[in-house]
Design goal:
heterodimer; A: about 290 residues; MetI-like fold; two-stranded antiparallel ribbon; B: about 400 residues; alpha/beta; 2 domains; ten-stranded mixed beta sheet; about 45% helix
Chain lengths: ~290, ~400
């Protein structure tokens, strides 16, 4: 049974207790997603869609330049994920391996606290820090590093990155902390005893063992960033339009097939990333730690 | 003994049945007799007979309800308002009206002005019978009688629930004078001006500015609230040019964002709603509301009659409700609660007749303030239209602007 979590002997249908949840997930989870994919190929009518297969929605995605917004959101999401990993990994290692249990719990709790606050309020508060007369500009002006406030801190792509990072960094930290559980102290010691440097131990022992956590964190941050609107809305400038905002405006304008087509593309990318995670990063092993 | 008891029981049963039957037959006659105003038995009838309460399902913008004060309507006319917030998003509301069952399950709508033609063409709404709304009389302000989108094929489909007129908010410490929309596009204020992140607002303001000042030969724009394809292209190209030049760092959306931009000093001048000025002033900002030479942008939240009222038999009730809205009490209450204006002189008349309920001077000053905004501009008022003929093009252009 160990290492085989989720596998049911004889298949799902022979485990009657599994049927209700599976049915629920299928009807309310899978079916809507399938519908979105199919509807994206339907023809729009004035107020809805009709079953006449066409690629018009996908064609408009390119001809009307919607792909620019899509690629931009994708790029920002990848960058934020990468930055979250760079910042989050050392923090996770510090929390799990360096500090004592009591301090570790305090640190983890500190990362949870922001989630008790309203999401919008949390992002909005960054305006007070990044604004023209915000904390950063005031400090820089005070110490004389600048003579006039930096305009590009707020209402810019930089601000969106900062907002997304501050929102989703804990999503990177928690799975990595969990995966570092898998790295036993004796393994690291053995590596050092055999003469490996810290960097060699990190690259050859620690990172491979924490790969599932790294990938899970990356998926969480990437998918959350891809679906975000508040950070773009409150911190982005006039040119910072996210895919999610574009989707909302398409739905409000009753351009359903176009919205479904973009959602399908997001779905494909997300599913692709998940498959890669399960196939190559053995993401499922993360949950074995829980077992 | 048993036999005797049984006989008595049967007799009792028959007697009781007869008494109940007689009572049931006599009840309507007694009720009628007691209920008559000149009945000598009236004193025995207990409480005065109340009119039958009819429930009217009002589906409107959340800001248009007077909440517990609807009881006044129930007490006066026996109409109980069942209020539901329609979310104020025009697209989804129209979709639910035409594609869904909203036109059947609600009786009256309160929606941003402009959707009348589309809904009427699809048969989702009915024209109002103005003969059933006697309060739509000479007290109703002239400028709201002929709002273009209210009439479809000569019939009235829209009646203003509330109205107001918008212009610009500016920080008078930074921009001492602000009497034209040109300030929004002024290069000396680069990065310090903004507009609402909604084409229905931003486009009309820009079109008004271009038309009234004949900027870039755009003086020929016919109706800034309902642009033709080429007019829209010109207006949007103008906006894109300024956006690319860095004129706007952000567009605002929602009340708190609007207030925050002005109070934080990020923006010195922006198109928007007047209440933002009061909120900013409360926070110590020297904010003012501009009186632009090009005029204010008028907006109306309109009452629409759903097709379902024919089936539910609430056609007359819906008209009675609108007539009551125009009787003055509603206008006072909505002004007191939300600062919105009901466009009829009956509002002030009601306040004057009921000083115990409302402060007549306060109401008069508020109503006059809105009226003055409309009088500021000579000639026609430009009305914000949330569903212009080319609205899908508007959407496409707005998307293009955001990406530019």
């Amino acid at each position: 049974m160990k290492g085989k979590i989720g596998k049911l002997k004889g298949g799902v249908l022979y485990n009657f207790e599994a049927i209700p949840p599976v049915l629920f997930v299928f009807v309310f989870g899978v079916l809507p997603l399938l519908s979105i994919i199919i509807w994206s190929f339907f023809e729009p009518t004035e107020y809805w869609i009709r079953p006449h297969l066409t690629l018009a929605a996908y064609s408009k995605f390119f001809t009307l330049g919607r792909y620019i917004t899509f690629l931009k959101t994708l790029r920002v999401s990848v960058t934020v994920t990468f930055l979250a990993l760079i910042i989050g990994y050392p923090i996770s290692y510090f929390i799990r391996k360096i500090v004592g249990e009591r301090f570790r719990n305090i640190l983890l709790f500190l990362f949870i606290i922001p989630f008790f606050l309203s999401y919008i309020v949390r992002v909005f508060s960054l305006r007070l820090i990044l604004g023209r007369y915000g904390v950063i500009n005031n400090i820089l002006l005070w110490i004389g590093l600048i003579t006039s406030p930096i305009e590009g801190l707020l209402f810019s792509e930089v601000a969106v990155h900062i907002g997304l990072l501050s929102s989703y960094l804990p999503f990177m930290i928690f799975p990595i902390v969990l995966s570092i559980e898998r790295v036993g102290g004796s393994t690291v010691e053995a590596s050092r005893d055999l003469g490996a440097t810290f960097f060699q131990t990190l690259v050859r022992i620690i990172i491979p063992l924490t790969k599932p956590g790294i990938f899970a964190g990356c998926i969480f941050v990437f998918v959350s960033s891809l679906g975000s609107t508040v950070e773009w809305d409150l911190l982005g400038g006039v040119s910072e339009l996210s895919t999610q905002q574009m989707l909302e405006s398409l739905m409000a304008a009753l351009k359903f097939p176009s919205a479904f087509a973009i959602s399908t593309l997001i779905l494909v990318i997300t599913m692709g990333a998940l498959l890669l995670g399960f196939r190559y990063a053995k993401m499922a092993e993360l949950f074995e730690t829980l077992e | 003994m048993e036999e005797r008891e049984k006989k008595v029981t049967r007799r009792k049963f028959l007697g009781t049945t007869l008494k109940i039957g007689a009572g049931m037959m006599a009840y309507p006659a007694l009720r009628h007799l007691l209920g008559r105003s000149n009945s000598p038995f009236r004193a025995f009838a207990g409480a005065e007979k109340k009119p039958e309460v009819k429930e009217l399902r009002l589906w409107a913008s959340g800001t248009q309800t007077i909440e517990e004060h609807w009881i006044k309507l129930e007490n006066q006319l026996g109409i109980k308002i069942l209020f539901s917030d329609n979310g104020n998003a025009v697209g989804p509301v129209i979709s639910k009206m035409i594609f869904g069952d909203a036109a059947e399950i609600y009786d009256v709508n309160g929606l941003q002005g402009g959707a009348e033609k589309e809904l009427a063409d699809q048969g989702a709404i009915l024209p109002w019978d103005m003969s059933l709304i006697p309060n739509w009389d000479n007290d109703v302000w002239p400028m709201v009688r002929n709002i273009p989108y209210h009439m479809v094929d000569g019939k009235r489909y829209g009646i203003p629930f509330t109205i107001n007129a918008d212009s610009m908010i500016y920080n008078a410490d930074k921009v001492p004078v602000c009497d034209t929309y040109a300030y929004v596009f002024d290069r000396t204020l680069k990065g310090k001006t903004s507009m609402e992140d909604y084409w229905a607002n931003a486009v009309i303001f820009t079109a008004m500015y271009l038309k009234e000042n004949n900027v870039e030969g755009m003086g020929s724009i016919e109706d800034p609230g309902n642009l033709k394809v080429d007019e829209l292209e010109g207006v949007m190209e103008f906006l894109i040019k300024h956006k690319k030049a860095g004129q706007f760092r952000t567009f605002w959306s929602g009340w708190e964002q609007g207030v925050s931009l002005i109070t934080s000093g990020e923006v010195w001048c922006m198109t928007g709603w007047e209440p933002i000025v009061y909120a900013a002033q409360e926070k110590g900002i020297n904010a003012k509301y501009a009186a632009p030479k090009e005029g204010y942008e008028g907006w109306s939240n309109d009452l629409l009659l759903h097709k379902g009222v024919k089936k539910t038999g609430l056609y007359e009730t819906a008209h009675a409700f609108v007539n009551w809205v125009y009787s003055g009490y509603f206008g006072n209450q909505i002004m007191k609660m939300r600062g919105y204006c009901s466009p009829t002189d009956k509002v002030i008349k009601y306040a004057e007749a009921h000083p115990d309920e409302f402060d007549p001077e306060w109401i008069k000053s508020k109503q006059q303030h809105v009226l003055d905004k409309f009088k500021k501009k000579k000639g026609e008022t430009y009305w914000q239209n949330v569903r212009p003929v080319n609205f899908k093009l508007y959407e496409d252009w707005w998307e293009k602007l955001r990406r530019a």
